[in-house]
Amino acid sequence: MKVLHAAAEVFPLVKTGGLADVLGALPQSLVKAGVDVRLVLPGLPPIKAGLERLTLVRDLGALFGAGRVTLWLGQVGDSGVFAYVVDAPFLYQRPGNPYLDADGNEWADNVQRFALLGWVAAHLGTGELDDSWRPDILHAHDWHAAMACAYIAASPAAGVATVFTVHNLAYQGLFDSADFHLLGLPARLLTPKGLEFHGQFSFMKAGLTYADRVTTVSPSYAREMATEEFGCGLEGVILARGADVSGILNGVDGEIWNPATDPHVAEAYTSSAFGGKLRCKAALQKALGLRGDPKAVLFGVVSRLTSQKGLDLVLAALPSLLAEGGQLAVQGNGDAALEAAFKAAAIAHPGRVAVRLGYDEAFAHQMIAGADVMLVPSRFEPCGLTQLYALRYGTVPLVRRVGGLADTVVDTNPSTLQDSQATGFLFGPATSEALGQTVSQAIKAFAQPKVWRQIMLQGMARSFSWPNAANQYLLLYEDTLRRRKVLL
Ligand code: ADP
Ligand code: GLC
What we know:
The chain is built from 18 helices and 18 strands. It is of the alpha/beta class. The chain has a 9-stranded mixed β-sheet, sandwiched between helices. The chain has a 6-stranded parallel β-sheet with strand order 15-14-13-16-17-18, sandwiched between helices. It has a 3-stranded antiparallel β-sheet with strand order 8-10-9. The protein starts with a strand and ends with a helix. Residues 17-19, 22, 167-168, 217, 250, 381-385, 404 line the site of alpha-D-glucopyranose (GLC).
């Protein structure tokens, strides 16, 4: 089976969040499961520079306002995964974030930038761009690649089956209807049943409406997306797809996130010898200027600072966390107001609160290894990867009971301790009180070394593997192809 993944990010070349981690790992696991996988990516500077052995596939001429577009094929490092890259310097050759300019505004030509990505993916899907490789499945990720599904739907002879994965429904790719003509699609697609969304048009809707199958990255978020609370206005569209929508949990790339082999941490450790973890904590406290106290529970946050992540709750619960002797270390970047509030907290509580603003992959490993507890108090969370990494590193996750967090962390209580199931702490309402109470529960558990050790070891023993997720995608692909044959 041949599968083409279309996406805007791939670890380690371009990463703004978990999407990149998924594209860095899932294709490799599919290759190991015997699938012939290729990626198609936009020609952002680090992607062009990072792909190896690039060869020209085709000159595509002028497209979407870009004077000359060329299509290349290369390899992502030594992963064995081939990737097409769409080289359109006029649209992609610019520094910084793939979606935002230096002031944090969407690039003004995002409609063309990501329509081009979808267009190329779709035309690779129909076999028109590369005679030597034609996929059975075109798998598009998030709004950035979603238009591929609309281009396929608009071309009746296409043949290729489509799968669309929602990594985050809150980012939808909404554009002014006056720009619809830029897409080169028939006007019949600009209706409420098609791409129209309250007077605008939505790239996300292209995936949700036109893909043969829609997935998201946890079973709980698959259910939540179809509700008013989490559906971001698209719940009706999702509900209408019925059983075409399903959830497959992400995994952990064990080559990158493994405390026994991690080159970034102060000392490697395993579940049978975790003295190294204590030294990682001491090293982290030292690096951040926190008091070098092994008994203080060190709460860590590694996150984009956006309202999704619920970190305002951490700020509100901070007084009680500190009053009970806890410490807080935050690594993140995003909303200016949250950045400023965390900075102010660090200044107000030297030695007990530390904040590192910015994006730093190596330091994220040190945080996840060195903290005692990883806080993920998200308002919504399609899957969440930091709690999965934390579990692997014996760092106990404290998370909100929502989306993928609810699917991957087992709350600690007398019965889950008795059954050897407990792996972390969960809270329900998105309030600082609920978070504060759970923080307090974690601090009490930490004071009981035997209990804490049990929770840590049970978390480390849980396996969220990419090979397992890849098998589930494979079954979905096979089922999608079978259904398509029956329909044709
Ligand atoms: P999301 O994709 O919503 O941001 P995930 O938990 O799925 O959330 O993935 C976040 C990824 O980004 C993880 O790999 C995490 O370690 C990483 N990350 C988030 N913020 C930072 C940061 N400031 N520096 C380094 N890595 C970060
Ligand atoms: C999104 C979600 C996150 C998920 C990631 C990878 O960014 O916010 O929950 O883990 O995509 O699927």
